[in-house]
Amino acid sequence: ADRKTEIRANDHLTVGNSQHLKIGTGQFIEAGNEIHLSSGLKVVLEAGSELTLKAAGSFIKLDASGITMVGPVIKINSGGAPGNGSGAAPIPPTLPKPADTAPVGEKTGTANLNQLPAPTEKGATGPQQLIVDVWGDPEQGGQVELLNPEGDA
Fold it and tell me: Is the pTM of this model over 0.85?
């Protein structure tokens, strides 16, 4: 079955080491303003048949026929500067607030602690026993008698 998730706020994820994704058919990402990929050492984009970079009516396309660059002016080593992204700033998780301080709903009192069962009259706190004696013909429906574990069986 499909998994559908909607978060109507920011979503922050921090992974201590590596994150691996394997997707069967396609991954489609759309952002309102910016997608920023950043790496300390290298970024590798690999495609089986085509890689295209496209912005503001210009594009660079790499495919089996070669490298295609289209734009009003194509500059090679003649001015310009790279663009800058915003960078990642994930917020680490915090401990949740206690339920009775939540702003939604009515406050509830503190829960009562479970009471320990009172000790038996003889003060026994060890394991309890139940002895069952079944007698009679099982085909006809046997009789069950419960015996006191301290009595005679």
Answer: no
